[in-house]
Every structure is written in C-alpha cells, then in structure tokens.
Amino acid sequence: MATAAQWIQGARLRTLPAAIAPVLIGTAAAYELQSFRILNAILAALVALLLQIGVNYANDYSDGIRGTDEDRVGPLRLVGSGVARPEHVKWAAFAAFGLAMAFGLALVIITQAWWLILVGVGCVLAAWGYTGGKNPYGYMGLGDLFVFVFFGLVATLGTTYTQAGQVSLPAVIGAIGTGLIACALLMANNVRDIPTDTAAGKRTLAVRLGDRHARESYVLMLAVAILLVVVLAPTRPWMLIVLLLIPACLMPAWLMVNGRKRKSLIPVLKQTGLINLGFSVLFSLGLVLSHGF
C-alpha cells in the first residue's frame, strides 16, 4: 500500500505551477479591467489545481494498466511501480475531478454564467481522455494541443471572464504564453520518455517529431512565450520585465538540446514549472504596474 508521501509524489507537485500560472495571469488581467474578485480567483485556483492533480492520477492509472510505465525514467508512478492498486489511483483521480467540479459549480453560481458548466465538463472529459479510454488522444500526439487549449486559453481566459465578464488582449497574450510554457513542460517529459513511449505505441508529439526536433521545439516554445510580451510593451511598458526571465531559461534549454542521457532531462521538469510560475508572476506584476500608466 502506498504511503502518504508516495501519494503526494504521485500527484506530481512539479506540474502544479502550470495550474496556478493561468489563474494569476487571468486575475491580473481582470484587475486591469478593474474587476478583481478575490473569491472568484480562489475558486478558479482550486478548480485548476484539482484538475491538474486529477490529470496526474488519471495519467498514472491509464499508463500503468497499459504497461507504458514499466521501464520509465522519472518521478514515481503509483501503478507502474506497483506501490498502489490501479483502482485506488483511478478513484483518487475521480475524487480530484469531483472536487474540481464542485468548486467550479460554486463559481458558476456566483457569476451566473451557466454556460461555463459545459466548459467544466469539457475540461474533465479532456483530462480523462488524455491517456484514458479506448482511444486516448495523448497516444495520438494531440496531448500538447489540449494542454495549450485547456491549461493556457481556457484556464486564463476563464479566470478573467469569471471576474470581469469579458476578456482583453493582455489576457489573450498571457494565455498563449503560459499555454506554450505548459506545452514545453509536457515536451520535456515526453522527450525523456521517447524510447518507452515508442515501444508502448504511445505516439506523442515528441515521438512524431523525433528526438532532435522535439528538443528544438521546447526552446522555440519558451522563446515565443516570453518574447510575445513585446506586443503589449507600447502601451504597457512594464510588461518588459518578463524579459528578465530569459536567463532562467538558458540552463533548461541547454539541457534539452544537449542532454543525451534520459535522467539528465528530469531536472528540466522542475525548472520549466518554475519558469511558468515566474512568467505568471512577472506578467501579472507588469500588468499591475502598467495599470493607469
């Protein structure tokens, strides 16, 4: 039976910045629209965090029962390592999804935007369908697209909308940026797993691109995400503080391009998660400081 520490490790805490980042950016965009609402922001954060944890447990379960994780290099997988029973991990995923839907419903009731229920259902279905079901889209190379859409566009713009009732150009730019960094994190994970994913028939985008181009795409995603803030600089000059993040990107980018041993790519996951969190903080700070400039 898995220990509490192993369950926490299985939740993959390093990926949680990808859930917090869009909420921070979306909230800052709402603040710029003079519609900051702390309760709505907290509920959005809880929904995002629980969905991310649910995805991680669901991925652990689905990959584990398929045998994809039998020879995996990286953080502990509960099912693949045999420390937890598959059905327990599945129910942990469902519990996280259930709590996310409960907090999401509370947010819908507060905002009276009932159509967001459909968005919430779509989020849960996408979370489970990544590696679950008969035809998981993560095995077809579509995982990166769904991560960009749900952990970038939907999470960021949804946060802004539930506070301001509208979205803005900074919200869109921020959504694209954090979405690309979340995709970079997924790419770092999938590049490391190319050999085992190929053997298991898991055709991730990294597998389809091939080792070299997949590594290069990681660098490209980080570069576009950070440099895109220049679009906002003419009217919001403080947005240029996001460029301070460039030095933090150099080491993980170098490791991705030059790290040939699979274990050498493991630190890139944590570094990319921190980059996403740093991006969201600097982006949000830039919006706040530029407000009324």
Automatic annotation (TrEMBL):
The record's top EC class is: transferase
A biological process from GO: menaquinone biosynthetic process
Which reactions are catalysed by this chain? an all-trans-polyprenyl diphosphate + 1,4-dihydroxy-2-naphthoate + H(+) = a 2-demethylmenaquinol + CO2 + diphosphate
Superkingdom field: Bacteria
Q: Which GO terms describe its cellular component?
A: plasma membrane
Question: Known EC number(s)?
Answer: 2.5.1.74
Membrane-spanning intervals of the chain: 12-31, 37-58, 91-107, 113-130, 142-161, 167-188, 217-233, 239-257, 269-289
**Membrane topology, record value:** Multi-pass membrane protein
- Signal peptide (from-to): none
| Keywords assigned by UniProt, alphabetized | Cell membrane, Membrane, Menaquinone biosynthesis, Transferase, Transmembrane, Transmembrane helix
A Pfam family: UbiA
Q: In which pathway does it act?
A: Quinol/quinone metabolism; menaquinone biosynthesis; menaquinol from 1,4-dihydroxy-2-naphthoate: step 1/2
Extract one GO molecular function annotation from the record. Answer: 1,4-dihydroxy-2-naphthoate polyprenyltransferase activity
User: What InterPro entries does the record point to?
Assistant: MenA, UbiA_prenyltransferase, UbiA_sf, UBIAD1
Where in or outside the cell it occurs: the entry states: Cell membrane; Membrane
PANTHER family per the UniProt record, alphabetical: 1,4-DIHYDROXY-2-NAPHTHOATE OCTAPRENYLTRANSFERASE (PTHR13929), UBIA PRENYLTRANSFERASE DOMAIN-CONTAINING PROTEIN 1 (PTHR13929:SF0)
Q: Which family does it belong to?
A: Belongs to the MenA family. Type 1 subfamily.
- Entry-linked NCBIfam families: menA, PRK06080.1-3
Q: What does this protein do?
A: Conversion of 1,4-dihydroxy-2-naphthoate (DHNA) to demethylmenaquinone (DMK).
Protein name per Swiss-Prot or TrEMBL: 1,4-dihydroxy-2-naphthoate octaprenyltransferase
